Structure formats: structure tokens, C-alpha cells
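Go through this one:
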Amino acid sequence: MATLKDRVQALFRYRVGKYDANAIPQELGIYAQTVAGANVNEQSALAISTVYACTYKIASTLASLNLEIYERNGRNIQPADNHPAYGVIKDTPNQVMTAYEFWETIISHAVINGCGYAIIERDGSGYARRMLIADYYEVDRMPTETEEGYIYRVKDYGMVQPENMLEVCNLQRKSPIRLHRENLGLAKAAQDFGANYFGSDGQMTGILSSDQPLTKEQMTVIQGSWNKASGQAGTKLLPFGFKYNRISISPDEAQFIETRKFQAEEVCRIFSVPPALVQLESQTTYNNVEQQNLMFARHTISPWAKRIEQEIDRKLLMANERPRIYSKFNLNDLFRGDMQARATFYREMTQIGALSINEVRMKEEMNPVDGGDTHTVQVNQIALDRLGAYSDKISSDGTTEQ
């Protein structure tokens, strides 16, 4: 049986991991100072506009997608709207949050902190009746000797078994803010530099020098007078015999704009969000933005959606229901083009019999029409159930049906 010392060491190794001893305070969030001099942690990083924009873009996009539970019956698939977890996932996860707010919150936690948590409370049959968001900093994932190997301890709630904790995770459950603290620190330092520069009315730091010896009292008076004058607009007057030498560099010399733009692109790279989607690039064309939208859907949103789908299937569906019943995000809206592209797609799909008119109308949220359920093909647009007779007819006498 593991001793208390072994448990403490195991917990410490889990929370800290194999890092340099000098980096342990930073990894624990005790000391978040970067080489650039900026304090960066999960909260302060959101003050960087690109970090906030990337987090919002990922979380809001996923939350806005249609999340369904489907039931597969042979070749037929239909929404399982009578499943007990359907309403919890799609409509009302708890009494104080909408489904959109719930998914946006837990995904934003995962994007920033590395993990997002929600406690699953079940009814007497074992189905989820509600899900409660648990703050990342109030959840400890503790090692145990059970079969699962870990258990969750939630502040002001108690212990939670792994099967009752919905966990949406980033890569290796690690915070991108901590992994890329120095990158973000440079972005924050550039932002702070601009704020300090414009906050001081563009006054640059410098040195007042004199050829004449000065007493301590004289230096104090002159320094105070100069500092007071530097905070006011207008011409500054140097005392006789003094010279002013600038020791700081101007924003142009520091390549301020270029540095901020490059660091913003670095943040986009960290979160895998195309720059145009967070209004970063000014010289973009419609085609460029359309391609970046597709890249975002395929390489950023799709992996996040797969993580969430598998976690829902594992935690909110019974073992004997899988894989007949499963959850799925509808990503079609992310891959939809403009009206002309959609019209071309629908026309081709109806001409080969893949979609009926009513299925097209349903995708466009339009009411069905009489006779619209019949699937047709391009050969005179005849019904599929008449295709065999049509083929026999043209084979027998070489004529075509008008």
C-alpha cells in the first residue's frame, strides 16, 4: 500500500512533471515572469487581444454548431431525440446555462488551461440529468490505486469518479499559455511598451548631464522640476549648462508595429487559427479568406469536435448503446460555400439521386413539397424505381421514353 509520502510525490510529479528545478515555480503558476519582463498566466494572457480572439473563435464556433445524438438502425440514421441525454447535451445542460453557453465555457477552459471540466450528475437509471461546469483551478486530478488510476477532487463539491467528469482536453492536457509563456511574454511586453509610450505623451527616457558639479539637493530639485515638466505638453527648457541625452529608443527604431504583428501571428500559430479569422491581415482577398475558413474548419474545429464527440459517447451514453447510438457535430455549415456554390452542389447531388428535393429543402430549413421525396437521376430525371424498366425498354427497342 502506498504511503502518504508516495502519494504526495506522485501528485507532485503529476502536477509539475519533469522540468528544470528553476522552472517549477513558473509551472505551478507561482511566478509567471518572463524574460521580456511581462507577467503571463492563463488570466493575464487573455488581455492579449490575439489570445482572446483565438480562444473566442474556437469556443464560439464549436458552441454554435448543431450537436446531435444519432441512432443507427441498419442503413438508416435518425436523431435520437428520445434519448435521456439528448436534452442535456443539446438544450439545457443545467438550470443556469444554455447549451451554447455551456459548450462555449468548457471549450474556452480547455483552449486556455489545457482542460475543461463539467461534473455529470445522473438519475436513478444512470443517465445524465445535468452537467455542472467546474472551474479549472478548483479541480485536482489525483492518482489512486483504483482501476482507473485517478479520481477528481473538486473544491466545495467533493470527490468525483472519472466516469462522472466530462473532460475536454487540449494536446497532452497542457496549457498552451504555460508552454508558450515566453512567446506570449514578448507580445505582452510589446503591448505594454506601446501603452507606456503613449501614456507618457511620447516622452522618451533620457539623462540630464552637466559639466558643473552639483550638490545632492540641487540634483533633487532639478530632477523633480524636469520630471514634472516632462508630463506636460509644450517646449521644455533646460537649465544653463545642462544637456539632454536620450537613452530609450523610439517605436520606429524598436520596429514596434512589425513586432506586434509578428507576435500576433505567433499566437495564431499556437492556437492553429488562420490570421484572417481574427482580423489580423489587411491585404487579403475573398479567395484567401475562404481557403482559411476551410483550413480552420478542417484542421482546428474538426479535431476539437472529435475530442468532444468521443468524450460524450464515453461518458454520457451507456456501453450497451454504443456504437448504435453516437453523438456528432454537424460541420456542414463550416464547409458551405456561397449561394452559387451551394446551388451547384445541390443540383449535382439531385441529378445523381443522392438527395431528393425535400432533403435539399430541409438543409435550407424550408418546408417539404408534395412529391419532393422522390429521388431522381439525370437521365430524363426519372424516378429510381422506374430506372430498371427504362433500361429494359431502351435495350429492347432502342427508343427513349419522353
